[in-house]
Specification:
Bound molecules: adenosine-5'-triphosphate, ribulose-5-phosphate
EC number: 2.7.1.19
Number of domains: 2
Shape: globular
Low-confidence stretches: none
Helix content: 25-40%
Keywords: ATP-binding, Calvin cycle, Kinase, Nucleotide-binding, Photosynthesis, Transferase
Largest sheet: 8 strands, mixed
Number of strands: 12
Strand content: 15-25%
Family: Belongs to the phosphoribulokinase family.
GO molecular function: ATP binding; phosphoribulokinase activity
Radius of gyration: 19 Å
InterPro entries: P-loop_NTPase (IPR027417), PRK (IPR006082), PRK/URK (IPR006083)
Number of helices: 8
Structural class: alpha/beta
Mean pLDDT: 91
């Protein structure tokens, strides 16, 4: 393993699924090896002050982006930081905490790719882009369940924040190596919100696994639940891998084998090895199920973290 930590960025709008994905990846890699930083902790103002000033948490001026940059650089060098803590229950700041980075650092938040100095510190950059109606559903569900808001308050907040989402959050998509979009299937069944499909946009900014093995000799996909294609994203050429929620175990295992071929260490985390924790999702009524799209997304990102660790070790 390299001497310096590997830094993964996960950026997206509020309730885009950053914490869910971050925790899933930490579970795959092993919590003892992962430090998680949420950049909400770097808000410049508490909730009352933001309301008084009339600024949203999405505005760059509402966050200490310079301290985020400084802390990212320290973490990348393996140095400790004294991190502020924003408390989502009180809307105020708790005493700061001392953080010593572990082998992998996951930095998740709203504005992680806003400045070049910050962008340059990540080994892997992920952007989460669910359709806006799904994000609204997720935000209303999460903020009413866990953050003490009424549904109308959440909807009003989303409406007020939209100009900042457009100006500051969504443009950061352009800096990502991987763009993750979970989306409901067309069938509109009751299960459709849980059995989501995923679209993974793979930019050629980092070397991705060779997924062409899932194509047959004529270049067709094997089965209809997993699809690989070429496209353009923000006018740049990209590969696109789509995995449906109803993909079969054997198709998923085929993808897992592709990932493990290059990084055998990943094998222990795969569903082929009977890992039932990967891709676990808790539904709105508390039921749990295993989502193959989420599992493969977690594995692909872990693949990139392990590859980055290999490259960094070689450079030593
Ligand atoms: N892949 C997913 N599949 C199903 N539901 C999801 C998924 N990702 C997120 N959710 C739902 O959306 C809610 C919000 O997700 P999460 O807390 O991860 O977002 P976030 O981007 O970290 O938000 P914030 O920046 O506001 O803290 C979760 O509580 C969960 O109900
Ligand atoms: O978009 C958010 C990221 O989670 C929060 O809304 C932001 O952190 C502001 O917090 P609060 O809702 O407690 O005022």
């Amino acid at each position: 393993m390299p001497e310096r930590p590997i830094i993964l960025g996960i950026v997206g709008d509020s309730a885009a699924g950053k914490t869910t994905l971050t925790r899933g990846i930490a579970q795959v890699v092993g919590k003892d090896d992962v430090t998680i930083i949420c950049t909400d902790d770097y808000h410049r103002y508490d909730r009352k002050q933001r309301a008084e000033i009339g600024i949203s948490a999405l505005a760059p001026d509402c966050n200490y982006l310079d301290i985020i940059e400084q802390h990212l650089q320290l973490l990348r060098q393996g140095q400790p930081i004294l991190k502020p803590i924003y408390n989502h229950s009180t809307g105020m700041f708790d005493p700061p905490e001392y953080i010593q980075p572990k082998k992998f650092v996951i930095v998740e938040g709203l504005l992680g790719y806003k400045t070049k100095r910050a962008r340059d510190t990540y080994d892997v950059k992920v952007y989460l882009a669910p359709p806006e109606d799904l994000r609204t559903k997720w935000k209303v569900g999460r903020d009413t369940r866990k953050r003490g808001y009424e549904p109308e308050q959440v909807l009003e907040q989303l409406r007020k924040r939209e100009p900042d989402s457009e100006a500051f959050i969504r443009p950061q998509r352009q800096w990502a190596d991987v763009i993750v979009t979970f989306y409901p299937p067309q069938d509109d069944s009751e299960q459709s919100d849980l059995l989501l499909n995923v679209k993974l946009v793979l930019r050629p900014t980092i070397p991705h696994p060779d997924f062409t093995h899932i194509l047959d000799d004529n270049g067709n996909d094997l089965g209809d639940a997993i699809r690989l294609g070429l496209d353009r994203d923000m006018s740049k050429p990209v590969d696109v891998l789509e995995i449906d929620g109803h993909a079969h175990e054997s198709q998923v295992q085929q993808l897992e084998r592709i990932l493990c071929k290059e990084v055998p260490h990943l094998g222990q985390f795969c569903s082929i090895e009977g890992n039932t924790n990967i891709g676990k999702i808790t539904g709105t009524t508390g039921e749990t199920l295993q989502s193959y799209p989420l599992a493969l997304t977690q594995l692909l990102i872990t693949y990139h973290m392990l590859k980055a660790a290999q490259r960094t070790a070689l450079l030593k």
